Amino acid sequence: MQWFYVASLLTILTSSQGILTTLSQTNGGYEYDYATVPFLAEVFKLIVSSFLLWRELQTSPLPRMTTEWKSVRLFPIPSIIYLIHNNVQFATLTYVDTSTYQIMGNLKIVTTGILFRLFLKRKLSNLQWMAIVLLAVGTTTSQVKGCGEASCHFLFSAPIQGYMLGILSACLSALAGVYTEFLMKKNNDSLYWQNVQLYTFGAIFNMARLLLDDFKGGFEEGPWWQRLLKGYSITTWMVVLNLGSTGLLVSWLMKYSDNIVKVYSTSMAMLLTMVLSVFLFNFRPTLQLFLGIIICMMSLHMYFAAPNMLVELPLAVKAAPDDRIEVSVD
């Protein structure tokens, strides 16, 4: 049950991520370059993982560390998938509105289950498949706005390109998670050594993105390292630490649990964020939110509960005592 505490902590940190990001704004905007936050989060994860690996190396016996290139070369792939995913996200938003995009994003719950079955060969029961679909339905229900709002009339009225890109985005997100789980479980290497490899390439790709932004902008604001910490406040650093800690927890779940647990954690975090927004940002709760929470709780119980808690199994019929008397006949 150790995964339960890690997943619960992941839910809390993920739910606070959006709140901290909102609090870091000034007059509705960011005084810092938001593109530097993922880079610093990757550097934070790399430093923590390197320190933990160093601590592990001081112990005996030494941890397993595969240094062959044919193994190391697999670790840039998740960063490449996420890079493609980010560009597909941007392209999707040019065709669909934000509400439709958020609802379509819940497709990654189902696509994660499908890729989880196809690539990792993990079998799920019929009840667990139903629970995954219910989770997608519950999160979608909580995000649907009331029909009295103007945006409701434009829901799902985008061109077909937007829906195709939305499906591709969901598949890429699921593929990145499933592939990362494959990397973490393909051998018995130390978790911290795997993290060092993963976050090294993550930091490199995020730095390359900052350089690309500089070239696109013609270096009008100077190179990225000059504005790296510009406009940072205590809240901004909390966003960085939150994002980095979330990544470390996800890698632990990928190593010792699975993608489905991560999906449930992030989905519950989304609902928790909406509930907390009611008290922090005067967000008006809707009937759809309450219905979505109920459906997601039913899905959570259906997926993780023991089968005998969901279905009443017939009691074993006891054989009637044999009262017959054997009489030997000569």
How many distinct domains? 1
Helical content, roughly?
55-70%
Distance between the termini: 66 Å
Q: Which overall shape is indicated by the principal axes computed on the Cα atoms?
A: globular
Largest sheet: none
Write down how many β-strands occur, each being a DSSP E stretch of 2 or more residues: 0
Q: Beta-strand percentage?
A: under 5%
Number of helices: 13
Radius of gyration: 25 Å
Q: What is the mean pLDDT? A: 87
Order of helices and strands: HHHHHHHHHHHHH
Structural class: mainly alpha
Low-confidence runs of at least 5 consecutive residues: none
Structural overview:
One of its GO terms (cellular component) is Golgi membrane. Belongs to the nucleotide-sugar transporter family. CMP-Sialate:CMP antiporter (TC 2.A.7.12) subfamily. Residues 1-18 form the signal peptide. With 330 residues, the protein is mostly helical. The protein has one domain. The protein is 68% helix and 0% strand. It is built from 13 helices and no strands. Helix 1 (2-23) crosses helix 11 (259-280), helix 2 runs antiparallel to helix 9 (191-216) and helix 4 (76-92) packs antiparallel against helix 8. The longest helix is centred in the middle third of the chain and has 26 residues, at 160-185. The chain is globular, with a radius of gyration of 25 Å. The termini are far apart. The model has no long low-confidence stretch (mean pLDDT 87).
